Amino acid sequence: MFKVLVIDSSAEDSESLRGLLAEEGAQVVVCRDGTAAKPVIEGHAVGFTAVFMLWDVSDPASVETLPLLRHCWPETPVVVMIDEFTYDLAARAYGMGAKDTLQKPVEAKKFKASLRELLLARDYSSPMMTELRKKIRGESASLLAALWQLTRVIPHADSNVLLLGESGTGKELFARAIHDLGPRHDAPFVATQVSAHNEHLFESEMFGYEKGAFSSADKQHTGLFEQAGDGTLFLDEIGDLSASAQIRLLRVIQEKKFRRLSGKEELRFKARLVCATHHDLPEEVNHKKFRLDLYHRISEATVHAPPLRERKGDIELLARYFLDANKGERKAFADETLKILCGYDFPGNVRELEKAVNWAFRACVGEIILPQNLPSEIMNALLRDAPGAKSDKETDAPGRAHIEELIDELARSLPADWPTLTYRETSRAHNQALDRVYLRKTLKRHRHNLKAAAKASDLDPKTFRKRWRESGLPPLGGDEEKPDG
Question: In this predicted model, what pLDDT tens digit does every residue of 397-406 receive, in sequence order?
């Protein structure tokens, strides 16, 4: 999670930017003008990750805001948005310290591209950021912000790190990067999932034991604290640790020493501790399910691994990567298959995406992966999760009807000899089928208001009309051009 300040007098525009930033995983603060922004800027010593501000040279408060930002937050990049854009105004903004300028109304793609460039620019030449991007794939703003946090955490070998994030977001990849790129990379990396051990097994695995410590202990066993040596110990799902195990772990962290079960010799705990959890640990602390003192000990540095729904721009990149990782016959995604993948929220995050791609690879008998090769839960969610959809209970029957309609359109779009056609010919037919269903339903949902439907589709109205026409749908009438309301 990273923070962005938006300064814009237009409530509609600022809410639009808030939505775009939320899609990228940002926490957004909106101020209506420079006067309202001043106490926010002066009250936050560290500043935000980025600022997007409307720059009105006729408003003194607006003009004064940019120098104030440069003074209070010299490391925070500022993007100036200009209503009546001219190159002279843009040059003046750059001269006052702006990192980029955008013309209003701001296009979604240009806005997100500007945000990503700002995040990359902070450590563009950093060797560590370069290596991180090789290990953890993605170009989305939320991921780049997380990687930037890692560059600040990795060099400090003695600080314990807490990785937060939903299941499947790649927290172990983060942990391995902390080890591999840090000062302890030549020492062992030892990982275990806390939830896989019961209380007794956890202690014997963590501390080790002497021969005869219990009935089945026929020889000495080296525990994970000892195995980690001077390296890194990664405890996954630390939020599942029992109350008594929390006390034992806290004592080891505090005293930096431990004994094997039934052992007399005190051993030093020298490893860097990295923990991960999908739980909300502060909330667990409030409910007395997790010790406050242990929480503070393991979270000397905290990094959030963003969920895939906050980095949808990475879905296609990751899907192609997972597809290429499959050995054997080379396959490719049909364009409409990628559209469906990119429109799905993936509650299981990157792990679910990898599983879906591997499933589709095995289910596909040809060279092109089609929508019907995807897992059923993704196809079932295609229209159920569309903007403006009702609850699951309300949409169960209509959702099935829409999916059946899509399947019918796909079936009608293909000639009997489609396996012998080229990829371009086959994918074009499938794209048209998907467009026919999607565009028709979107226009109907917005009461045949073309501008509203195009905006919801993230398409220009002219592009919406063009795709409508090319998909073979009946011509649009003039009424669809009526203004909102």
Answer: 444 555 666 6
- Tell me the angle at which helices 315-325 and 335-343 cross, rounded to the nearest 10 degrees: 120
Choose among 400, 358, 398: nearest CA to 379.
400
3-state secondary structure of 482: coil
| The residue type at 254 | Q
Its pTM stands at 0.66
Cα distances from 325 to residues 133, 320, 331, 357, in angstroms, run 18, 9, 11, 10
pLDDT tens per residue across span 340-382: 998 888 999 999 999 999 999 999 988 999 988 999 888 777 6
Which residues touch 62 (CB under 8 Å, ≥6 apart)? 33, 34, 53, 54, 55, 56
CA 388-391-397 angle, to 5 degrees, is 100
List beta partners, residue 28: 4
The position carrying tokens 């794209």 is 431
| Phi/psi of residue 162, nearest 5 degrees | -110, 125
Q: Which DSSP string corresponds to 153-222?
A: HTT-TTS-EEEE--TTS-HHHHHHHHHHTSTTTTS-EEEEEGGGS-HHHHHHHHHEE-TTSSTT--S-EE
Own/partner pairs, 109-116, CB within 8 angstroms, 24+ separation: 111/17, 111/20, 111/52, 112/20, 112/24, 112/141, 112/313, 114/79, 115/4, 115/21, 115/24, 115/50, 115/141, 116/140, 116/141, 116/144
> What are the CA-CA distances from residue 67 to residues 59, 92, 122 (Å)?
14, 12, 20
Q: Taking a C-beta distance cutoff of 8 angstroms, is the pair 395, 384 a contact?
A: yes
Bond prior to 74 in cis (omega within 30° of 0): no
> Could you give the CA distance from residue 341 to residue 39 in angstroms, rounded to a whole number?
43
| Integer angstrom CA distances of residue 147 from 110, 176, 268, 367, 438 | 22, 13, 32, 35, 36
Backbone angles phi and psi of 449, in degrees to 5: -90, 105
